[in-house]
Amino acid sequence: MNTVDCMQGAGGSHPAISAKPVATAVQPDGIPAELKLCSQWLCWRYEWDGQRWTKRPYSPRSGARASVTDPVTWGTFDEAMAACHAGGYDGIGFVLTRDDPYSIIDLDNKPEHPATPEQLVRHQKIYETFNSYTELSVSGTGVHIVVRGAIPSGVHRDNVEVYSELRFMAFTGKVLRDMPIVDYQQWLLVLHGEMHSTESAELVDREGTMDDRELVDMAMNATNADKFNQLCRGEWETGEWPSQSEADFALLSIIGFYTDDNEQVRRIFRMTALGKREKATRDDKYLNRALAKIRAKQPAPVDATGLMTQAQAVANGGRGRSSVATQTTGAVTQVQLLRASDISAQAIDWLWLNWLAAGKLHILAGAPSTGKTTLAVSLAATVSAGGQWPDMQPAVAGNVLIWSGEDDIADTLVPRLMACGAKMERVFFVRDVMEAGQRRPFDPARDLAPLTAAAREIGGVRLVIVDSIVSAISGDAHRNNEVRRGLQPLVDFAEQHRAAILGISHFAKGTQGRDPVERVNGSLAFGALARLVFATVKVPDTDERIFVRTKSNLGPDGGGFNYAVQAVGLPDGIVSTRLVWGTPVSGEARDLIAVAESERDESGNAVDEWLRELLTEGGEMTKREIMRIGGECGFKERTIQYARERLGVQTKVSGFGTEKKSVWFLPPTPIHATNSPIQN
Question: How far from 49 is each of 17, 52, 54, 677, CA to CA, in Å?
């Protein structure tokens, strides 16, 4: 921005109006779809406030000034874009509120307020840590990172701003990282704590561990030795430091990095050209004020045990159970507690509403030849391509990881992905691990840490398929404690990356008729730890298959979809299979599976007639009462289920837990012209 000469007026010296900034044009296709669905959009334009150009918000509906506290002044995304295109505005903005799950991290580097080299290093660390949707700022020199999570209050420090509410942020859609908006609640609180730390610390006298000569030699051979030597010579008027006070602070910071002995820092500083000023030699007040601020920004020293504990906490995605820090003395261990009032309640982040949840573990189990892997590949294709789910809900595109010890990648999995229309560049197969220069097969039971690093590198992982889930257990898959211990790294991975984990398993032998969750092969902990459990069944002697939701801790259970596995011809003579979704089915999972697995009773005239008569006379009846009466009449439960299906008996379920009940009733009989009581 080129500033014109200052004007002199009656009120003193005021800056002249500088050239109006040119805003980066909005690219609407780049803005995440989930944000576009929110009615929290407004328009803005640059206006001169007497000192600088500032962004003023306006309602896209009325054209009046907008307020971040008044939803009436906001509009939809389409309304904001239409008003912006109509003219008079420089861009659009999104209002952050307490009720939405979003926060925005602004890494600023404007020409009029450039970031220092130290700040740019911190910006890079923040950028690498918060691996979420990122776009270029309006100025074209800054970065906006959009994440899920909230902080207690907005903070602004070191050219970094973080806000969760009471702010509008200008959006450009000029994408730097094209990926979903990821949940980083724990890391947001860490960042907020660092930025919100006290500006000064109480100085504590400690004895140095090296003499002055050793310290100076170390500083003169460090990577920033040129800066250290320049400051020692008093050469601060080079443009990097606006004043000598800031140069003093920089040199004190370098010396203070090497020693906790404040007296040693003051002594060495006074040996330099900068330290000859009268304010530095008269007494210690000036230097102590600077040292207090420097010590406040330095991390507390930890011993080796503490460092290992922190590293483990990072590896576990910041989970509370790993947030133990050993203090410098090594004598006291402190548990970090997170206050409930500091955490914002959040809605479930669904990949597929009520079916696939980000950050959660899912299990898909079934008998052989039901097409479990083909079904999982179909889900992977939907995520990679941003397609449609079986109930026609749109899917948000993301990356997919697949680890399979069951099928060959080249001749089985890749052809199935192609047949399902996957976006192949978004699907990644987990292969071998390089360890100490040696290659070995990937082991999900021990290699989650390097997988986490690889996932961070590609970014945007939304779905991880593990086939089979039993491979993640290094111990006995039939022992609850070993299964829980083996699955915990997968649960941590899902939470850290906001990805849905889909583990494939089998039904245990001899479990037909039992609760579907209990039929998952191995320990009951597989079904207990998973938040959602699915089952696949195939009707004997037919091509009919059913995908059933047998358990959900996050929403409704029961119901499902019919599907078929279809052969597909691909180029180069390759033949593969794909999954074709059919109609939805309703009912309790156990009933749907029991009907599908049992043989059809073609001679069901007697039970059909009995059930029709029972429901005609009794009207709506509970399933329990029907089965009791049927048992007294000599009918088996599965035979009654077949009759219900043949007659088209409808069901409705109400209540939860012990109060849950299923009611059966006949569909209404259509009135035809020949028997209508109303004649033309």
Answer: 9, 6, 7, 79
Q: Is the distance from CB of 473 to CB of 443 less than 8 angstroms?
A: no
Confidence (pLDDT) at 488: 84
Identify the bridge partners of residue 95 per DSSP, sorted by sequence position.
168
Q: Parallel, antiparallel, or unpaired: how do β-strands 53-58 and 160-163 relate?
A: unpaired
Q: Token pair of 470, please?
A: 């039993």
Tokens read off for 44: 């803005």
**pTM value?**
0.47
Query: Which amino acid is present at 195?
Result: M
The structure tokens 């860490």 sit at 190
Alpha helices in 17-101 (DSSP H): 33-36, 77-86
> How large a percentage of the chain has pLDDT more than 70?
84
Is the CB of residue 664 less than 8 Å from the CB of residue 623? yes
The pLDDT value given to residue 173: 93
CA 47 to chain centre: 37
Whether 315 has a pLDDT exceeding 50, the answer reads no
Q: Measuring CA to CA, which residue among 495, 557, 488 is closest to residue 525? A: 488
Contacts of 633 (CB under 8 A, 6+ apart): 610
Half-sphere exposure of 313 (CA within 13 A, CB side): 20
- What secondary structure does DSSP assign to 185-204, as a single string? HHHHHHHHHHHTS-S-----
Are the C-beta atoms of 633 and 647 separated by less than 8 Å?
no
Give the angle 196-199-201 at the CA atoms, nearest 5°: 115
**3-state SS, one letter per residue, for 231-242:** HHCCCCCCCCCC
Quick check: 505 and 511 in contact, CB under 8 A?
Answer: no
